[in-house]
Specification:
It contains seven helices and 15 strands. The chain is α/β, with parallel strands linked by helices. The longest helix has 26 residues. GO terms for molecular function: lipase activity.
Length: about 375
């Protein structure tokens, strides 16, 4: 049975309805797209009723996840097994830069033969409406392998039960279970593959930042290991802002170093500082060059800043620190020289809130 089965009568009804309104039959692809949207909306409505009645969901190999506080503002999450083949991890190294060795579904015991336990392992995790084939994901992989001899793992969690759910709130809730799954994969690489928790770096965009946070927290809470680093590229704000609990998403307890790039406090990200090092380029709101662009421009600019920081030819230097992340640059004051560097080279600088400026076009770095 397919991902979204439907009764024959529904197909006829949809076709007649479209013909009546438009006077002509739609293309097959358009008809299928409309049918899929209608099915997903019905599934969402049913899921809301079920989620309201249920208090927990049990995921294979992970246990139960509840909708009790602090998660009571969201529906119950989907389980990793529901994503089926949409959940997959692609392992790349300099020896296999183009053809990955993949872990599909909820396999948490395989150790890829290409993976090198003595190297840093970077997990790159997308956010809502993206998937593993998103252009920026492939660009990250290529640049990482070009500049650094590391393991690069692209994490895909798309599809209607993951980041592709048309209801953002379900995707936001599912960051918990996908994070737990990745936490178990990391534990397998440590316990059975010989890696050190210090050598894991998770880089997530938007909801992917919170997937990263839940992965790090799962590893710490269940196995007592605090992974080396998590980078949140404009961590998603909706469903995470205003929740009076630090366990709902990315926070400082998730890794030894949590650094964040905050670029869209108006529409997409959280206005509060959730990391050890928190960078607010151009005040963390509308980014230069995004004035006449769609609302997501500033949200995705964090990706471009971080990717550009990989080459280290120009450092995104911060020369001001701030006392209030909601008042930038009003609460900021100059420091002596460079006090922080945004992006890949940020390790080694003090925990703080930083302000810096960028160019409106690439190269964005101003040094």
């Amino acid at each position: 049975m397919g991902r979204w089965p439907f009764p024959p009568g529904l197909a006829i009804g949809m076709t007649i309805a479209v013909f009546h309104c438009s006077g002509s039959f739609p293309s097959i692809q358009d008809w299928l797209n409309r049918l899929r949207i209608r099915f997903l909306k019905r599934r969402e409505a049913l899921a809301k009723k079920v989620a309201h009645a249920q208090t927990s969901v049990t995921c294979e190999g992970l246990g139960a996840f509840t909708n009790q506080p602090p998660f009571d503002s969201l529906p119950l999450p989907h389980c990793p097994e529901q994503l089926e083949e949409e959940l997959h991890l692609e392992f790349y190294t300099r020896d296999n830069p183009d053809i990955p060795e993949s872990i599909i579904g909820i396999d948490r015991t395989t150790i890829p033969s290409v993976w090198l336990p003595d190297k840093i392992t970077v997990f790159v995790i997308h956010g809502w409406t993206n998937d593993i084939n998103s252009t920026w994901m492939q660009g990250f992989k290529n640049d990482y392998l070009n500049y650094y001899d590391q393991n690069v793992v692209l994490v895909g969690w798309g599809g209607p039960y993951g980041a592709g759910d048309i209801n953002y709130r379900y995707s936001a809730s599912t960051t918990r279970t996908i994070g737990a799954h990745i936490g178990e994969v990391i534990e397998n690489l440590i316990a059975n593959g010989g890696a050190s928790e210090d050598n894991f770096h998770l880089v997530g965009h938007s909801l992917g930042s919170h997937v990263s946070g839940h992965a790090g927290r799962w590893e710490n809470n269940h196995y007592g290991r605090l992974i080396g680093r998590i980078t949140g590229m404009d961590p998603a704000g909706p469903a995470f802002v205003g929740v009076d609990d630090r366990t709902v998403g990315l926070y400082t307890d998730c890794a030894q170093l949590v650094d964040t790039l905050n670029t869209d406090n108006i529409y997409g990200s959280t206005p509060t500082s959730t990391g050890h090092q928190n960078y607010y380029p151009n005040g963390g709101e509308e980014q230069p060059g995004c004035e006449n662009a769609e609302n997501t421009c500033s949200h995705f600019r964090a990706i471009r800043y971080y990717q550009e920081s990989l080459n280290q030819e120009c450092l995104f230097a911060a020369r001001q620190t701030c006392t209030n992340s909601s008042d930038i640059p009003g609460s900021c004051s100059p420091c002596l020289g460079v006090c922080g560097v945004m992006g890949y080279p940020s390790a080694g600088y003090d925990d703080n809130v930083y302000y810096l400026t960028t160019n409106p076009d690439s190269p964005f770095c101003r040094g």
